[in-house]
Write a structure and sequence with these properties.
Number of strands: 5
Radius of gyration: 14 Å
Shape: globular
Number of domains: 1
Largest sheet: 5 strands, antiparallel
Strand order of the largest sheet: 1-2-3-4-5
């Protein structure tokens, strides 16, 4: 089975609540990071700054989606993410749950700013 080459092809692999959540996350990413280029990185949808640095990645799994930022972005929002399962830079959102839109928008803005102002690259 070949890996998807576009975000649309990636999304086509999902159905039901998984597809709905991934569509919402991608729409939010497009709205909040309009200058970023969409690409497939490590087999997943990624938003890439015009400088070429990855800003964040969205990925679908069996029962949840992840939005993965840098560890520093995730850490900056640790208190607000207390009710979510998180990883080094990731936030797990179960299928069937609405994404925390306001929080993710602020995390995307933070990530763009930390790259543009502080020069923070990808992991």
């Amino acid at each position: 089975m070949s890996k998807p080459q576009t975000i649309d092809a990636y999304l086509a692999e999902f159905a039901g609540p998984g597809r709905q959540l991934l569509d919402e996350l991608c729409a939010l990413a497009r709205d909040e990071a309009p200058e970023a280029t969409e690409a497939i990185k490590w087999g997943n949808p990624a938003w890439v700054h015009p400088s070429g640095t990855i800003l964040f990645v969205v990925s679908g799994h069996a029962k949840h989606a992840n939005v993965t930022f840098t560890p520093s972005t995730r850490l900056a929002f640790a208190a607000e993410l207390a009710d979510f399962d998180t990883g080094k830079g990731s936030v797990k959102i179960p299928y069937g749950q609405s994404p925390p839109g306001d929080l993710l928008r602020r995390m995307i803005d933070y990530r763009v700013r930390e790259h543009e102002v502080d020069g923070v690259g990808w992991m």
